[in-house]
Amino acid sequence: MHASDQTLNGSEIFIESLRRENVEYIFGYPGGSLLKVYETLYDVHDIQHILVRHEQGATHMAEGYARATGKPGVVLVTSGPGATNTVTGIANAYMDSSPMVVFTGQVPSSLIGNDAFQEADIVGITRPITKHNFLVKDVKELAATISKAFYLATTGRPGPVLVDMPKDILNASCIFEWPETVEIRGFKPTIKCHINQVEKAAQKIAASKRPLLYIGGGVISAEASEELQKLAIQQNIPVTMTLQGLGSFPGNHPLSMGMLGMHGTYWANQAVNKCDLLIAVGARFDDRVTGKVETFAPQAFKIHNDIDPTNVDKNVKVDLPVVGDAKNFLAGLLEMMPIETESRESWLAEIKVWRELCPLTYSNGDDALRTEFVIEEVSKQTNGNAVVVTDVGQHQMWTSQFYTFLNPRSIITSGGLGTMGYGLPAAIGAAFGIKDRPVVLFCGDGGFMMNIQELVTAVHHNIPIKIFLINNSFLGMVRQWQELFHKEKYSFTDLGESNPDFVKVAEAFGCRALKAENPDSAKAAIEEALAWNDGPILVDFRVVKKDMVFPMVPAGGSISDMLLARLNPKTMV
């Protein structure tokens, strides 16, 4: 421990500890149990506090910042409802392995358990959705606890950590001591892969005729894109990515197969069915990827590299597990690959046939505006260089299909939890972290309404996000399922009569707003929005109401049973 001779109160220790962790931004909302912290924050100028308008918004902003930069996002909220409002955002970060430290105020220690005003057992509530959480019981433990929280959030598989700080601890004083190193009993993540396992994997790859790299978000967390690209290109191995893995391999490269799974490309899913070797790196065989697990990659020898040993054999039994960091694994493979390996030309030719048989297309003959057109046009106008944030639903899947991601940390989206309302605050958080690339948000009208209050935060801080509102006046993805599988009973998914005029709403918030209703006006609006950098701008795209995302795998179906758009007799109006 490094002890200074300074006596500080708990609130000052909190701020000083954040400085030691190089925190730039706190996304927060004040309240009774944090009054001492906010008194201290009043005179702090080297850490910027961003006042959100709802605590859920704070967690999504912190996650957007973390996903865009790789640094942990920091949240500060008061006790009781302030703390419980963070639960969805914490669960989201946990599912998607995003590094985040959430600090909650708590009632004084003597009142804990007494149902005091604004008391909630947030440590108990968040135990299943955090990597770890702490209740600080002594001011002398506060600095060491904060150090541990950041270490846990960022080491091994990243994730959220919560620190609950009672009011009396924040008022109490002690000598400030900052730990030089962090030791946590029982927490020793395996970073270095076992050399024998890596060697076996290299031999399997060299001998395989139809290998396939299946890449998840873990490759991006591990900053391993360069190693992935070298391996794939050197060995001529096609690459398919999960939603969170997009951008780890350039989408415009001939070996890129785009996304696999429920709304993945036809050729990626065919390749999964027919490959003789599946190399999963930093992915967790999620049900949206595998469909019916018994039929997933039936002919393949399966190699699985993940930093979290609990992910291995969890959903799909694998033949060769390799626990460790993705960068370490891929760098190890590059070193150990034999010079002589199988030619992959006939395998790539087979994939090319599938790609030509069922490309990603959409009807573009009339003057109607389609979401696919909007996304494709944004991809062209940004040259695939934007940081793209999405909300959840049809537009999210179309983004994975029609935006060509060239770089890692270019897609920020809610994957595992599928949280509507994520997009707007996550885009704001991302824009605090990234200043040299445009930050673009694709958001449905349903999800936009869920955290619309954060528009004020974007306007107040002059954040130049481009909000591309995909407005079909429906909860589109639920409507699609109702049409295909629930007798066309559109139960509570039609928002047409209740949606506000989004242009007027945005303007009332102080945000510039445009509307586009056909391809020509959409093209012009996108150009105008991308050129506008004086604060946020919203474009209300009035898109086709009943468009559907294809291909798709029905719930519980095998990925070989994809529904393809051209087999669907329904016309889209």
Structural commentary:
- The chain is of the alpha/beta class and 573 residues long.
- It has 3 domains: 2-178, Thiamin diphosphate (ThDP)-binding fold, Pyr/PP domains (Rossmann fold), CATH 3.40.50; 195-357, 3-Layer(aba) Sandwich (Rossmann fold); 371-550, 3-Layer(aba) Sandwich (Rossmann fold), CATH 3.40.50.
- The chain contains 23 helices and 20 strands.
- A 6-stranded parallel β-sheet has the order 3-2-4-5-7-6, with helices on both faces.
- α1 packs across α2 (35-41), α9 packs across α14 (326-336) and α11 (225-235) packs parallel to α14.
- The longest helix has 15 residues, at 55-69.
- It is globular and about 70 Å long.
- The termini are far apart.
- Mean pLDDT is 95; it is low at 566-573.
Distance linking N and C termini: 67 Å
Which quaternary structure do these chains form? single chain
Mean pLDDT over the full residue set: 95
Could you estimate the helical fraction of the residues in percent? Answer: 25-40%
Radius of gyration: 24 Å
Strand order in space, largest sheet: 3-2-4-5-7-6
Residue fraction in strands: 15-25%
Q: Uncertain segments of ≥5 residues (pLDDT<50)?
A: 566-573
CATH topology of the largest domain: Rossmann fold
CATH architecture of the largest domain: 3-Layer(aba) Sandwich
Name the shape in a single word.
Answer: globular
